[in-house]
Each structure stands twice: as C-alpha cells, then as structure tokens.
Design brief:
Elements (H helix, E strand, L loop, with lengths): L10 H8 L4 H18 L1 H13 L9 H9 L2 H7 L2 H45 L3 H6 L2 H21 L4 H18 L1 H24 L1 H23 L1 H6 L3 H54 L4 H42 L19 E8 L8 E8 L4 E5 L6 H8 L7 E6 L2 E2 L5 H6 L1 E4 L10 H5 L7 H10 L3 H6 L17 H13 L5 E5 L7 H11 L7 E5 L3 H4 L4 E6 L2 E6 L1 H7 L1 H10 L6
Parallel strand pairs: 3-8, 3-9, 6-7, 7-8
Antiparallel strand pairs: 1-2, 1-4, 4-5, 9-10
Protein name: ABC transporter ATP-binding protein/permease
GO cellular component, one term: plasma membrane
Membrane topology: Multi-pass membrane protein
Length: 601
C-alpha cells in the first residue's frame, strides 16, 4: 500500500479500480444485451409482414432480409393461409430474447456483486491504514454510510445504467433506421420530440444535483445518531436521556424525509411531464399516420411497426433521462468515496528498521498540538530508562495521554523527536513499533467475543502465559464467578462486564503480549483501591523485563514508580520519586492531600 500513499484518484480512475475482476462479467452482459436488442428489432417486422400480407399490401418495400425470409416460408399468400407461422416466429424471437436476457441479468448481477466486493475490500483496507487523526475528525456513522449506501449507489448506476449504454445505442440506432425507411415525415415528429426530452432531462437533473448531495449528507447524520445511540445505550438510559435522543432522532429523520420528499416531488413532476410529451408525440404519429394510410403513402403494417419502433426508441430515450438522474446521484456518491480513498495513508515506514525496544525512551524537546496554533505539549524533554517504571501525572488537559499517542505514532510531533534505544521512532517500521508497545486505555474497547478471544486477539499464546497475564491483572476471581470461564461472551464493547472488569481484561490483553514497552493510561481508574494495589504489586514481576509508563491522576497508582513526571499545561514542572515530589511539587502535594485519607489526619 505504500505506493498508494499519495495517489489522487479521479472518478474514472476509482471506477476502473472498482471494476477490477468484474470486467469479464460485464463484457458478457453487454454482449447478451446486444443480442437482446437485435431480437427486439425482429418482432415489429414480423407484425408488419402479417398485417400487410393479410391486407394484400405491396411487400416489395420490406428490408431485403425480411423479403428473403418471407420467400423462404412460401411467400405472402402462403403466410396468409398459415398465420400460425407468424405466431411461431414471434414466440421464437421472444424465447431467444428471453435466454439472452437471462444471461444478461445473470452476468450483470455477478459483475455488480464482484465490483461491490472489490470496492468494499479496498475501502476497508484504506480506512484501516488512515491516520488516527483522520478517524477523530470523521463520524463513524457517516463513514459506514459511505461504505454501504454510496457503494450501492455506484453499483446500481454501473450495473443498471452504464452497462446498458450499448443496448440503448443499438435500440436507438436501428429504430431510427427502420422508422426512416418506412416514413420520413413521421420520423421528423420523433426527431423533434427526442432532443426536447433529452434537453429537458439534462436541465432538470442538472438543477437538482445538489438535492441528491443533501439527501446523502442527511442520511450520514442520521446513521451517526443511530450508531451513537446503539453503542451508548447504557449511558443514554443511565442519564434518562431517552426522550431527548428520540426527539433528536425525530428531528433529523424529519429533515432527511423532507429532503427526499422534495426530491421525489420534483422527480414525479419530471416523469409526468415526460409522459405528457410522449402522449402528444404518439397522438401526432397516430393521426398523421392514419392520414398517410388513407392516402396510400403508408401501409397499416408500416404504421403499426413504426409505432412499435417508436416505443423501442422512446424507452431508451427516457432511460437516458433516468441515466442522467442516476449519474447525478452516483457522481455525488463517488465524490464521497473519493474523499476516503484520496485521504493520505499514515506513514507506516514499511521498510523501516526493527530494533529491540528495551532501551531508553527519549523525548527530545517535543512540541505538539492537535491544532497547530494551540500546542498541547510544549518543549517536552525527558528520558525514561529502559526497564524502569515511570509515572506521569497532571491535571485534566495537561497532555498526559498525548504522550502515549506520540509514542505509538498515532500522531507526529510538530517539533523535536522521540527515540527508543537511540533509534528515532520515525525510522522504525510502524507495524513493528506498535507490535512492541502494549497499552491499556482508560476506556478499553472489547469486542463481542469471548474473554479468551479478547485477551489473545494479538495471536495464539500458551496457557501458561495466558494464566500469568490473568493472574497479574487480578482477573482470576472474576473468571471463576463466570460459569463459562474464559469462554464467557462479553457482548458488544464489553457491555456485560463492569468498568473495572473491562479494564482488567484489557490489562491482561496487553500483558499476555509481553511487549518491551507497556503503557497504562489511567487504566486502573475503575478498579477499587485493594485491586489497584494487588495489580501494582503483581506488575513488579515484569520489573526489568519491560519499560512501564503509568499515566494516571491517582497518586496511589504512581507512588511506587521509580520516577514520576508532573505535567502542567503541557510542560514538565517537576519530576522525582513520590517522597521527593511531596517536598518540591506544590501540585503533587495538594493532589496527594486530597486523595490520601492519611494525609488529612
């Protein structure tokens, strides 16, 4: 994927990539549709022969192929006496057309689903490698809507509209040829109305293109609200926000519905106006055609065939109007997909070095801000000795969690550099770096799988290693209370577990990997003091084997660390052991006095 890092896809380039692997199906579908169109041209000629033959009209004006066919069955007189042959011919043409139509539909569907699979695989792969910052800036519901509804919109346009262009061209071309050969004057009526319909369709759909985009955007917002409420259902109910969320959903649903109602109203007007134009055109053809029949310049069979060919012409012309409509919607959807696929991938340094990460971690005058003009970390300069346990504490918004984001390269520093064991992390292979740094967040994400699968999601491990991680994370008693033990399903996002149980499961998930760097980002905030102490004591088993960074606002979690760094407003204001900070850091001392009952005695 490295070669795609900075690629900018046009709509056509993206579409060709989507079609990779499905072109052969669509090619077969196009061939079958051509044969269907060819068979559609035969039926009106058979009807013309039968009608004019029965009425005793001159058949010398028939196309040469039709005359040869008529001669082959015994001539007009024989056909008049054996009309069932005409019925057989029409049924035969219809049967052959049905076979080709089946092939057309089957191959078209195969191609469409193959295209959708390719598109979604590509989108998912790309999204998985987009920077963490991109995910923070985009709503999950909107991303899901782009990968489902917008992909389906492109699929429908390609399969139902674009692939039918060849068939439409054949129907239009041959219908015009046959109609002109039968009556130039009636053809003029058709030629005057067709451009009018095409121009009207183009103008109409050009004007309402922005409404399609509004509908897509409103659907994305609605998907986001739905997704937030489904994943946050416990919070919504805990705070009694059901009524508020229902009203929020109702309002957005109303906005979405109103946009579509407005669009549907305009579309209905378009189709109704088109029907009116077609009705006037057919009326003129019937009236003038009847006059020409009375005058003898047009036979009854020719008039019926002409009307039949006109219908075959009008269908694809009106299909062009729909195609313009679908093109407008598909264009909006392709732009929304291009937004994802043209978003730059994170720099993974695939060919970077893969050094051992048991050395010193050095932040060398690092400055970083989520917004360039508002730095969160300011000239951060410190060293964490390899194999040591270091705590980082500070008030909310001081930049504690940002430190681990930078160490994992979820973000890149604006200034300064970060190295481990003397090797800048920018030069390391990103997959390697992240595989060697384990971390537990305050709100860990658990998947809807068993506890065992959540703990071992990085790969298979030995039972001994698994049990050790569970014991150190103080999760053994919890598992003993579950009848299924390790095979207990935790539910979506770990909904069946308490906050402390989820944190301890996440801690076990990290410990089982035995990475050389371990980061605990306020990951003991939901456990009680006794369990907190048990876990901290157990973690000493890893002392010297891994560098541990404990990020917390709870001093009891940090007090046994080899060194504690105090952050205030993105700067280091003090560092030292617990005892040293009680003497020299006013912030640390004040927080300790608030949190420690003994200090208040």
């Amino acid at each position: 994927m490295g070669s795609e890092q900075n690629m900018e896809y046009t709509k056509s380039g993206m579409l060709m990539r989507f079609l990779k692997g499905s072109k052969r199906f669509f090619a077969g579908s196009i061939l079958a549709s051509i044969l269907v169109a060819a068979m559609d041209m035969i039926a009106p000629q058979i009807i013309r022969i039968v009608v004019d033959g029965c009425l005793g009209e001159d058949l010398s004006q028939l196309p040469s192929l039709a005359q040869r066919t008529l001669a082959a069955v015994g001539g007009a007189d024989y056909l008049r006496e054996h009309l069932y042959l005409a019925a057989v011919g029409i049924l035969l043409a219809a049967g052959i057309s049905a076979v080709f139509q089946y092939l057309n539909t089957y191959l078209n569907t195969k191609g469409a689903e193959s295209m959708v699979k390719t598109a979604r695989d590509w989108l998912f792969h790309h999204i998985e490698h987009l920077p963490y910052e991109w995910h923070m800036q985009n709503q999950t519901g909107d991303i899901i809507q782009r990968c489902t509804s917008d992909v389906n919109m492109v699929r429908d346009f390609v399969a139902e509209q674009l692939i039918q262009v060849v068939r439409i061209a054949i129907l239009i071309g041959f219908s015009i040829v046959f109609m002109v050969s039968m009556s130039v004057r009636l053809s003029v009526i058709v030629f005057l109305s067709v451009p009018l319909i095409i121009a009207y369709s183009w103008f109409f759909y050009y004007k309402i293109g922005h409404l399609f985009q509004q509908c897509d955007e409103n659907e994305g917002v609605l998907s986001t609200i739905t997704q937030e409420n489904l994943t946050g259902v416990r919070v919504v109910r805990a705070f009694g926000r059901e009524q508020y969320e229902k009203e929020r959903f109702r309002k957005q649903n109303e906005v979405y519905t109103n946009a579509w109602m407005k669009l549907c109203g305009l579309l209905s007007g378009y189709w109704a106006t088109g029907d009116l134009i077609m009705g006037v055109q057919l009326l003129l053809i019937v009236v003038l055609g009847s006059v020409y029949c009375v005058r003898g310049t047009l036979t009854a069979g020719e008039l019926i065939a002409f009307i039949s060919y006109n219908r075959r012409l009008i269908w694809p012309v009106r299909r062009l109007g729909r195609m313009i409509s679908e093109m407008s919607k598909a264009g909006v959807s392709m732009d929304r997909l291009r937004y994802i696929l043209n978003s730059p991938l994170e720099s993974r340094t695939e060919n970077g070095v893969c050094p051992p990460l048991n050395g010193d971690i050095v932040f060398d005058h690092v400055t970083f801000g989520y917004e360039k003009e508002k730095p969160v970390l300011k000239d951060l300069d410190f060293t964490i000795r390899g194999g040591s346990i270091v705590g980082i504490m500070g008030p909310t918004g001081s930049g504690k969690s940002t430190v681990q984001y930078l160490l994992n390269r979820l973000y890149e520093p604006d200034q300064g550099s970060i190295s481990i064991g003397g090797v800048p992390i920018r030069e390391m292979s990103l997959p390697w770096l992240r595989s060697q740094i384990g971390f537990v967040m305050q709100e860990p994400y658990l998947f809807s799988r068993t506890i065992r699968e959540n703990i071992t999601m990085a790969g298979e491990v030995s039972e001994e290693r698994l049990h050790r991680a569970v014991r150190v994370a103080s999760l053994e008693e919890t598992l003993d209370r579950f009848s299924e033990g390790y095979d207990t399903m935790v539910g979506e996002r770990g909904v069946t577990l308490s906050g402390g149980q989820k944190q301890r499961t996440a801690i076990a998930r990290m410990l089982v990997q035995e990475t050389p760097v371990m980061i605990f980002d306020d990951s003991l905030s939901a456990v009680d003091a006794e369990t907190d102490e048990k876990i901290r004591r157990a973690l000493k088993e890893y002392a010297g084997q891994a560098t541990m960074i404990l990020i917390s606002h709870r001093i009891s979690t940090l007090m046994d660390a080899d060194r504690i760094i105090v952050l205030e407003d993105g700067r280091i204001t003090a560092e030292g052991t617990h005892e040293e900070l009680l003497k020299k850091s006013e912030l640390y001392r004040s927080i300790y006095e608030i949190q420690s009952p003994e200090a208040n005695l």
